[in-house]
Design a protein that fits this description.
By secondary structure, this protein is α+β, with helices and mostly antiparallel strands. It has 4 helices and 5 strands, in the order ααββββαβα. It has a single domain, classed as Fe-S cluster assembly (FSCA) (GMP Synthetase, Chain A, domain 3), CATH 3.30.300. Helices cover about 25% and strands about 20% of the residues.
């Protein structure tokens, strides 16, 4: 995980499940994605509401995600971080990350923790 930029508090909470726990589930993948931080906002992509869908089929984690704005240049960085963290999960050998802009992202998708961190009460 050392090559994955991450929030220290989030990294301490998350540990990749071991092979003895069985193959990773969609819930495991979603929890692991909390280590992927939007570098501009400093908040993980799950709490920001950027992750629209997670599926695990055989050894592939399929992620549908968006960005806060269509012209946002961090898409490739987010995908690299997803690849680096998710391939550490047992039973995940490939990540199929698909960026979409429909439906458009809005601040209502953010968790309460993300809103508080950004001063949005």
């Amino acid at each position: 995980m050392s090559d994955v930029p991450q929030n220290e508090a989030t990294a301490k909470r998350w540990q990749a499940p071991t092979e003895g726990d069985g193959p990773a589930t969609s819930e495991d993948v979603l929890e692991a994605l909390k280590v992927v931080i939007d570098p501009e906002l400093g908040i993980n992509i799950v709490d920001l509401g950027l992750v629209y869908d997670v599926e695990v089929e055989e050894e592939v984690a399929k992620i549908t995600f968006t960005l806060t704005a269509m012209g946002c240049p961090i898409g490739p960085l987010i995908e690299q971080q997803m690849q680096a963290i998710l391939t550490q999960l047992p039973g995940i050998d490939q990540v199929d990350a698909r960026m979409v802009f429909e439906p458009p992202w809005s601040a209502e998708r953010m968790s309460e923790d993300a809103r508080m961190a950004l001063g949005m009460f």
